[in-house]
Amino acid sequence: MAKSRRLTNCSRVIRHAWHFYYALVSVVKVLCGSLGIACLTP
After folding, report:
1. What CA–CA distance (Å, rounded) separates 20 from 23?
2. How many structural domains compose the chain?
3. How far apart are CA 8 and CA 39, in angstroms?
4. How many CA atoms does the CB half-sphere of 26 hold within 13 Å?
5. Rounded CA separation 6/24 (Å)
6. DSSP string, 1-42
7. Whole domain around residue 11: which residue ranges?
8. Per residue in 1-42, pLDDT tens?
9. What is the pLDDT of residue 7?
10. How far is the C-alpha of 42 from the C-alpha of 31, rounded, in Å?
11. pTM > 0.85: yes or no
């Protein structure tokens, strides 16, 4: 039982890490996009 519980906690941490990674990538894309638009406008 303890082993399966540890496995569940591990998968939960991995899932949260993926969500954090995707959120971070989205923020970087938005920042780079707005920075690129600012650079392109005269």
Report:
1. 5
2. 1
3. 46
4. 6
5. 27
6. -HHHHHHHHHHHHHHHHHHHHHHHHHHHHHHHHHHHHHHH--
7. 1-42
8. 456 677 777 888 888 888 899 999 888 888 888 777 777 766
9. 72
10. 19
11. no
